[in-house]
Amino acid sequence: MSAHAEYYVPAQSRWPILASAALFLLAFGAGTLINALTAERSGGAGLLILLSGGLLMGLILVGWFSNVIGESRAGLYSAQMDRSFRWGMSWFIFSEVMFFAAFFGALFYVRTLAVPWLGGEGARGVSQMLWPGFSAEWPLLNPPDAQQFPGPHEVIDPWHIPLLNTALLVSSSFTVTLAHHALLSDRRGQVKRWLALTVLLGATFIGFQAYEYTEAYTKLGLTLNAGVYGATFFILTGFHGLHVTLGTLMLLIILLRVLKGHFDSRHHFGFEGVAWYWHFVDVVWIGLFLFVYVL
Known about the structure:
- This protein is mainly α.
- It has helices at residues 15-38, 44-73, 79-118, 161-184, 188-220, 227-259, 269-294.
- It is globular and about 70 Å long.
- The mean pLDDT is 86.
């Protein structure tokens, strides 16, 4: 520890370049798959590339984080490194805030500007000439070009599964906070119980959302092709669901580390960083519940 009292500089690593290759495969595979599905062709090649990139990224993360955990357990990280990790996680969460801000901004633009214009409102009301008789209402069940983009038969009732999922995520914020306070007091038994409950709540949320998507596609006609409402709905809830999935996996890894005796009341930034991320995911869901499901 004394040899790295100021700052620890790790040896050269192969992980960043491998991660870049995996991200390229993920992006290329996703683009190929979406283009194929849009053209109503088989997306087998795109799906294979996408899954290959995801598998490679998973293996890279396992190896990379194993190195980081090993360095931390070896006492190589100083207070300066701890501050660096905190700043890094803070900037990462800020980037995620801006990521979702872009999608919420698109939703508000469509709802408050684009759809009313198409309905003949405001200075750009000449758009009414394109689709006379179009009724500008949100949620948009009858898009102006309904032959190419038919709207959904109905929207999801916010007071059933969405409300239940809200209760699950809000509860999980409390349980992860209780686990954190237990860790600060060195009550490891309570840490394990509260953290395990948080993982269970996150997994339950994912299960209910998968069920909700199945219902939307098979019974409500709410798909990615269901006009602008379907597109904004799945973009926002889909990316959030991906974040919940990643957050649940992160919490599970932290739980496994706790079970192995990692972390103590003074050194537990890995736990804290994941808790920050989880609170962020919960706050985003509150916005989704209000502006996508309710209002």
